[in-house]
Amino acid sequence: MFNMKQNKNGFTLLEVLISIMLLSLVLMALYKSAEILRASNKNLFSHLERTSDTLKGSKTLYMDILQSDGNITINTDKKFHRLIIGNTQHSLYGLDKSKVTWIVYKENNTLIRVEGRKYNIPLKTEENVAVDVISENMELFKIYRGKKPENILVLLKVLGGEPQSFMVQNISLEKYQVKLVSPAMIGRQKKSHK
C-alpha cells in the first residue's frame, strides 16, 4: 500500500498563490494609508504656512505700533480700516525712522504694508517705498483706539483662518503733545530770550 506520509520540502502552487494574493491585499491597504497620510501632511503644511505668514504679519504689525512715537492715524471709513503710523523705529529695510501704512488692497482683499520715509497714498511714481504683501483674502482688518488713547486694539482674520486679536498698550504719546502757537507768539518768545 501507499505510504500516506510524504516528506514535504516546499510549498504547493496553491499555497504560493494564496500568499501572493494576501500580500497584495496588505500592500494595497498600506499604499492607500500612505496616500491618505501624504494628502493630510500636504494639507497640514499649507495650513501651517498660511498661519505662519499671518503670525509673521501680526508680529510685524505689533512691532510697528509698539515702536511708534504715537503719531498714529486710523481711517475707519471703509470696510477695512487703514492704519498710518507717521513715525516708527521698526523698519524692515534699515531706515532709522519710517512711515508705515497698513492697508487692504481691493484686489483679492490683500493686506499690504507700505514703508518709506515720506509718501502719500495713492503712491506717485517718484516716491521711493517698499511694499510687502502680508496676506491675501482678508475677511477682517479693524483697528480701534482704546478708552485710553495710548492703547490700540487690532482685529484681523484671513479667509478660512482663525481670527486674531491683540492689544498694544502704553504707546508713547509724549512726543506728540503738540501745543499750537501763532507766529506772533514765536516772535515774542525769541525777543524775551534776548
Layout of helices and strands:
Layout lengths: L12 H54 L5 E4 L6 E7 L9 E8 L4 E7 L12 E7 L2 E8 L6 E7 L5 E5 L14 H11 L1
Antiparallel strand pairs: 1-2, 2-3, 3-4, 4-5, 6-7, 7-8
Report on the structure:
Keywords: Membrane, Transmembrane, Transmembrane helix. This is Prepilin-type N-terminal cleavage/methylation domain-containing protein. Pfam families: N_methyl. 34% of the residues lie in helices and 27% in strands. It is of the alpha+beta class. The protein has a domain of 130 residues. Strand 1 and strand 2 form a beta hairpin. It is rod-shaped and about 100 Å long. The C terminus is likely disordered.
Summarize this, please?
With about 190 residues, the chain is of the alpha+beta class. It is about 35% helix and about 25% strand.
List its traits.
three-stranded antiparallel β-sheet, 194 residues, 8 strands, five-stranded antiparallel β-sheet, alpha+beta, disordered C terminus, single chain
Rg, Cα atoms, Å:
33 Å
Termini separation comes to 141 Å
Total number of helices: 2
Task: Give me the secondary-structure category.
Answer: alpha+beta
Strand content: 25-35%
Strand order of the largest sheet: 1-2-3-4-5
pLDDT averaged over residues: 81
Oligomerization category of the chains in this entry: single chain
Query: How does the major sheet shape up?
Result: 5 strands, antiparallel
User: What is the string of SSEs from the N terminus onward?
Assistant: HEEEEEEEEH
> Shape from CA axes?
rod-shaped
Spans where pLDDT lies below 50 across 5 or more residues: 176-181, 189-194
